[in-house]
Design brief:
This protein is mainly alpha-helical. The chain has helices at about 1-15, 20-30, 40-50, 55-65, 75-85, 90-105, 110-115. The termini are far apart.
Length: about 120
Amino acid sequence: DDREAARLFGLAADQGNAKSLFNLGVMRASGRGVPQNDAEAARLFSLAADQGDAYALFNLGVLCASGRGGLPQDDREAARLFGLAADQGNAKSLFNLGVMRASGRGVPQNDAEAARL
């Protein structure tokens, strides 16, 4: 039951558990078990990202790149967040950072670095 999962993630998130903050953020972003709320998702992802959670860093980067969740659209910040998650081996962040390097979006254009990623 999604509502019960959200309730339980909320209890753990209230204690600062990074994975629960992330999971509740995903539920808020999608509206699964709780009302959809991109701003609250961004807040939860940010709290988890502050603890170094790679998946939260990635999702926060996506919100920054698109200007969702009450965040300003900021390619440079999105690339920074993707880089932090990529440093932990997050494959989606590696891909997004590679695309950004190839196009010069938010970071200097660099085909060799894009190919490496």
